[in-house]
């Protein structure tokens, strides 16, 4: 028989709400991690499973849990360009300024990948544009490096 905690991440990936509800009811660990350190919330957000992410957050999943590289659900949403997921995570108190292993933040991900709607959203929510990554680069430096002209204007 498969341990209950091993079922949470696949259900989150698929957005299988009835299964998630049952697992929550049975007391599954919502902050369990797979071999890469991904939690059910990180997986749900990365796969754009909004309802699953909301259900997990409502049930107490850690909004700021990070994988083995230090990446959070908010960073994944910024990388993928999922504004609705980012708004959800922010509404649940996600730390906007956490840094992953190389010092990158959600704002840096959004900027580097031209997710300028997310750049605006994160700035309005209070993200710090002065944080530096391990190379000493700020989000503006990264916008210039990526030739993200619109991002540069937003950040200035």
TrEMBL record:
Keywords: ANK repeat, Repeat. Pfam families: Ank, Ank_2. SUPFAM superfamilies: Ankyrin repeat. ANK repeats lie at residues 11-35, 36-68, 69-101, 102-134. The keyword Repeat applies. The keyword GTP-binding does not apply. It comes from the Bacteria. SMART domains: ANK (SM00248). This is Ankyrin. The lineage of its organism: Bacteria, Pseudomonadati, Bacteroidota, Sphingobacteriia, Sphingobacteriales.
């Amino acid at each position: 028989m498969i341990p209950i905690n091993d079922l949470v991440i696949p259900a989150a990936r698929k957005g299988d709400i009835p299964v998630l509800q049952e697992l929550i009811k049975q007391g599954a660990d919502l902050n369990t991690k797979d071999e890469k350190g991904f939690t059910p919330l990180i997986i749900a957000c990365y796969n754009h499973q909004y309802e699953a992410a909301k259900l997990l957050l409502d049930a107490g999943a850690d909004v700021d849990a990070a994988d083995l590289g230090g990446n959070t659900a908010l960073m994944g949403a910024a990388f993928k360009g999922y504004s609705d997921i980012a708004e959800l995570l922010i509404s649940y108190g996600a730390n906007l300024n956490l840094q992953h292993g190389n010092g990158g933040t959600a704002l840096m991900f959004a900027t580097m990948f031209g997710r300028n709607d997310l750049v605006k959203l994160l700035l309005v929510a209070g993200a710090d544009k002065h944080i530096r990554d391990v190379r000493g680069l700020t989000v503006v430096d990264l916008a210039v490096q990526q030739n993200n002209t619109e991002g540069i204007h937003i950040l200035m």
